[in-house]
Amino acid sequence: MNWWLDVVLRLVVILGFFLLVPLLVGQMEHKAMAHMQGRLGPMEAGGFHGWAQLVADGVKFAQKESVVPADADRTIFQIAPAVALLPYLVVLVTIPIGPGSQVGVALDLGLFFVLAVMGVGVLGTLMGGWASANKYSLLGGIRTAAQLMAYELPLLLAAASVAMAAGSVSLNGILDKWQWYWIPWQLAGGFVFFTAGLAELQRPPFDMPVADSEIIFGAYTEYTGLRFAFFLLAEYSGIVVLCLLTSVLFLGGWHGPFSAHLGWLWTLLKTFVLAFVVIWLRVSYPRLREDQLQKFAWTALIPLSLAQIALTGVVKVL
Amino acid sequence: MTELPGAGLVKGLATTFRTMTRRSHTVQYPDQAPELAPRTRGVIALIEENCTVCMLCARECPDWCIYIDSHKETVPAPPGGGRDRTRNMLDRFAIDFSLCMYCGICIEVCPFDALEWSPEFEYAEFDIKNLLHEKERLGEWVATIPAPVALDDAAEEPKEIALAQKAAAKRQAELDKPAPPAPGPEAPGTGSAQPEAPGGEG
């Protein structure tokens, strides 16, 4: 009985986190991006500085007709948004928020699990692009696939460096071993992980798959209503998961003053700072060209992550 | 000096961050009145008494959006003698703001300063027909005509003031010559010393 209560409580907290935090990041994007461009952003919805803008957006999306193109592969087209969204929910279950038992499920293979499931999320976009029966969607889907191929490798290599340093692939195990000097030690790895993660999420400046000035909206071109909203939600959940993972692997997660009681607050704080950086990068940089994108992955990020692994190995042996 | 690789990227981040810390440029319009430039061309006001139905404005209007109707009335001869005069009476003066292109030629061309710019711009309508402002509506805008913009420091005096000062000096000279009589009926410098209508062009 107690065990069931414990499980249900954890899942409810995680679901609440999953539903709330991406919206907070989205609202932060609205406001931060506006102010970085000398604008105010939403001001009307909800009264105070447009706090309810995303709620209003959600209501709008729910009212819209959900259209499936006549030539589309109906089933695949309809389940693609769920495939894009749900992996991030599953990933959240295994990420430790605070010390000790403040984690949904403490997996021994946590890091492997997280990276594998995150890769599935990208498949949702690919399915949507393939099933839409639209050349722009197909182009977007194929670009997504190319991006996944190029950036999954540096992502894994950078994460492997941390796992080597800790001698564990369990996220809790990594955090237990974590020391402050890991930040400079794993700096290059952190950069590679964060950048490659951004590219996997197709966030600007790596948003070639949705480049709206070239291929309309990539794989999402044919989507309307709630299904489209789910894709957008998947993007913001992706940001949250990426920032959470980066802070856990490279910034020490819940480590910080008073971490015994306020560990979860440190994790959240680091996550939101990283989410702000994600938004900041989007505002500051123009989109890369498709070939630049590939070149950056294969000639910059992968050598850098290999160098990081070598450095980790050398320090570990010494 | 060669720049470090990536210096441009950092500069870009710094620019957006700096912009974020400054005040945004947005004006929350319906809640907050916009700051309009002096001599803003919002709407055209009609000072009906000044109009002599000369029709210059209607003829100069590039898109013919001014409608004027009038009739003639006879003014009886003054008691001293002379003959009856006819006079144009304005019946209708209307500007169709759905056609008007706000060029201001009618205002420039009016010899009697009967038309003036007002900065008011909130007269949108649900029906395009209601953008035809009759002379009553055009008269309501008169209250919103701003005072003329002050002259530059080194600018020449307006012609009206120069003329009035000349006349005043002349009268003063006349008053000064024969010493005995009491001060004249009018103090110097009154009369048409002010530039009469607001909105001096140029």
Q: Keywords, please?
A:
heterodimer, A: 318 residues, mainly alpha, 12 helices, 72% helix, B: 202 residues, alpha+beta, Alpha-Beta Plaits, 3-stranded antiparallel beta sheet, two-stranded antiparallel sheet, flat
Describe the structure.
The complex is a heterodimer of chains A (about 325) and B (about 200). Chain A is mainly alpha-helical and about 325 residues long. Chain A has one domain. Chain A has twelve helices and no strands. Chain A is globular. The N and C termini of chain A lie far apart (about 50 Å). The two termini of chain B are about 50 Å apart. In chain B, strands 2-3-5 form a three-stranded antiparallel beta sheet. A two-stranded antiparallel sheet of chain B has the order 1-4. The C terminus of chain B is likely disordered. The longest helix of chain B is centred in the C-terminal third of the chain and has 18 residues. Chain B contains five helices and five strands; from the N terminus they run H-E-H-E-E-H-E-E-H-H. With about 200 residues, chain B is of the alpha+beta class. Chain B has a domain of about 100 residues: Alpha-Beta Plaits, CATH 3.30.70. Chains A and B meet through helix 1 and helix 11 of A and helix 1 of B.
